[in-house]
Amino acid sequence: MFFLLLTGACTHAPDHPHIQPAQISAPDTVAISVPDTVADISSDTSSHHLPEGFAYVRDSIPGIAEDIRYCSENNFIGDTIDGYMAPRAILTNEAIHALKAVQTELNGNGYGLKIFDAYRPQRAADHFVRWSKDMQDQRMKAAYYPDIQKISLFRKGYIADSSGHTRGSAIDLTLIYQDGAHAGEETDMGCSFDHFGPIAGNSAVITSRQKEHRQLLKETMEKHGFIAYRGEWWHFLLKNEPHPNTYFDFSVE
């Protein structure tokens, strides 16, 4: 069953790795809207029906690569995340239209896009919060947060109880080589997707080549209507998102 989360208001930290429009450059606590009530908008999930205005990215951008980390154990928790039933990227139609323009331009320069996460159900954000409170489970620390204590992840804004992804127009992605011997391989961005730490943002310790890759991704995404989050090189939000105050909870299937 699909669920739509309608919003009320409260204050909490910005989401890891995910932002609200007022949070683009501020990883500290801000006031935002969060889910309050639930309304049933569809009862048929078996045929992968989506709410009106949403679509599967690959239906419109067939050549785009996907590696949906939260539908696997290859993520900062180490388990499949609640709400991810299939490794598929879903976005609003507006975000897909803008992303298609990005992919087309990058293809002309020998690059392409690989998506790590797109629309995210609210139950996934809830899963992140539960995990952040379990101090016994730190099996992925070495890979994702080696220099940060887990107890501080929520306070520092890496984890939060709501996410721009849940509104359907935010995306986590990287560049891949389109042609040649390295076709399909990711470019070197200086750190991995979902790395918790300052190197994920505007870090002085990355190489000039890594900076070039980040800058190419950022400039191309911004050219086509996305807003970059300075704390995470992979995270972008559609500037004119169609659901700025609505958080969804339908499963990714």
Written overview of the protein:
The chain is of the alpha+beta class and 253 residues long. It has a single domain, classed as Muramoyl-pentapeptide Carboxypeptidase, domain 2, CATH 3.30.1380. It has five helices and ten strands, in the order βββαββαβααβαβββ. The strands form three sheets. Strands 4-6-7-9-8 form a five-stranded mixed β-sheet, covered by helices on one side. β8 and β9 form a beta hairpin. The N terminus is likely disordered.
Features:
three-stranded antiparallel beta sheet; five-stranded mixed beta sheet; globular; alpha+beta; 253 residues; 23% strand
Beta-strand content estimate: 15-25%
CATH topology: Muramoyl-pentapeptide Carboxypeptidase, domain 2
Q: What is the CATH level 1 assignment?
A: Alpha Beta
The stretches of 5 or more residues where confidence is low (pLDDT under 50) are 1-47
Biggest beta-sheet profile: 5 strands, mixed
Offer a quick outline of the entry:
The protein has 253 residues and is α+β, with helices and mostly antiparallel strands.
Note the topology:
Layout: E1 2-12, E2 30-42, E3 54-56, H1 57-60, E4 65-66, E5 90-92, H2 93-107, E6 111-117, H3 122-132, H4 141-144, E7 170-177, H5 208-223, E8 226-228, E9 235-238, E10 246-248
Parallel strand pairs: 4-6
Antiparallel strand pairs: 1-2, 1-10, 3-5, 6-7, 7-9, 8-9
